Amino acid sequence: MTPIMITLLVIAGIVVLIAIGYMNHVVENTKLEKARAQIELNDRLRRCGEITETFPGQLMTPALKLLLTRLELNVNQRLLTLNKSSAALKSRIKELEALIGQGESIPVNNPPSPIQTEAKAKDVRFLLEALHGQVTRAAQDGFLPTNEAKHWIREIRHILVLLHIEFFNHLGQHALQQEQPGQARLAFERGVQYLRKQPEPATYSQQLQVLENQLARANSMVLSNSQPVADEVNELTEGLKVVDADAEWKKKAIYD
Questions:
Q1: Membrane-spanning residues where (predicted)?
Q2: Range name among 23-37, 87-101, 214-228 with the lowest pLDDT average
Q3: Which of 18, 98, 186, 241 has the most CB within a 10 Å radius?
Q4: What span, in angstroms and rounded, lies between the C-alpha atoms of 229 and 171?
Q5: How far is 113 from 53, CA to CA, in rounded Å?
Q6: What angle is formed at CA 198 by the lines to CA 197 and CA 199, rounded to 5 degrees?
Q7: Average pLDDT of the chain, as a whole number
Q8: How many angstroms from the chain centroid is the CA of residue 3?
């Protein structure tokens, strides 16, 4: 064997080793990307399921239920491409497709869950934040058209306003039942202020009128009370501060 042939064999061996190393690297990267994709999609699926199952019934509409079902279907279909033999995924996809086929006649079984405490209001606000993230990501993935995504971002903001209205009203009514007109006045006043600062306050003119009437009633009770009412800087006041704070996600827009 000549020196040239030996050299060529050595070079060929090196090339083969490099190719094997490169292929192993590609295979490992592919496995890692698949694992990352599965983790991300399972997390999105979990969040979507949490919203669907725990969202208060008084705020859940057929249109919103249909959107959540479509989002869940999209995630399940993407998971199926990573695990094509999953019988559970195939079965769930069929169930979701059947539900979507009903359109806005889709059943909405979420029970009403009154927003009576700060903790409850925060929980629902977190669900809305999660929904905002789901819609945004679906738009980025190309699953939701831009116009539809923008529509749902507006709807999420609308639901957030309804959440505040219910919270302030419940706080005020509870305070009146407890014969605490000072706390009731505070709750109704914050509700009125919140609605007045909305970009389109006319949309909530009816709810604003109700809160203004309640505020006038509570204020009259305070003034007619012979005992002066101390300023209640307590858990109610602190709670209102927390819930009334506008979250950053509320201000975001898709494809401005």
A1: 6-27
A2: 23-37
A3: 186
A4: 18
A5: 12
A6: 115
A7: 86
A8: 70
Angle between helices 235-244 and 146-177 (to 10 degrees): 170
* Helix segments in 101-117, DSSP class H: none
Report the candidate in 122, 152, 155 with the shortest Cα–Cα distance to residue 137: 152
CB 229 within 8 A of CB 222: yes
Residue 142 backbone zone (phi > 0: left; psi -120 to 50: alpha; other: beta):
left
What pLDDT score was predicted for residue 13? 76
Which residues fall within 8 angstroms of residue 14, CB to CB, at 6 or more apart?
none
131 touches 85 (CB < 8 A): no
Q: H or E element: which one contains 92?
A: helix 87-100
For 76-89, give the DSSP string: HHHHHHH-TT-HHH
Where are the domains positioned within the chain? 1-113, 115-256
Residue type, 241: K
CA–CA separation, 9 and 235 (whole Å): 81
Query: Which regions of the chain does DSSP assign to beta strands (E)?
Result: none
Decide if 72 contacts 49 (C-beta within 8 A).
yes
Name the residue type at position 231.
D
Phi, psi of 161 (to 5 degrees): -65, -45
DSSP classification of residue 247: P
d(CA 91, CA 80): 11
User: What integer pLDDT is reported at residue 138 of this predicted model?
Assistant: 95
As a whole number of angstroms, the distance between CA 222 and CA 228 comes to 8
Coil, strand or helix at 69: helix
Residue 242: both structure tokens together: 């927390």
Whether 56 and 113 have beta carbons less than 8 Å apart is answered as yes
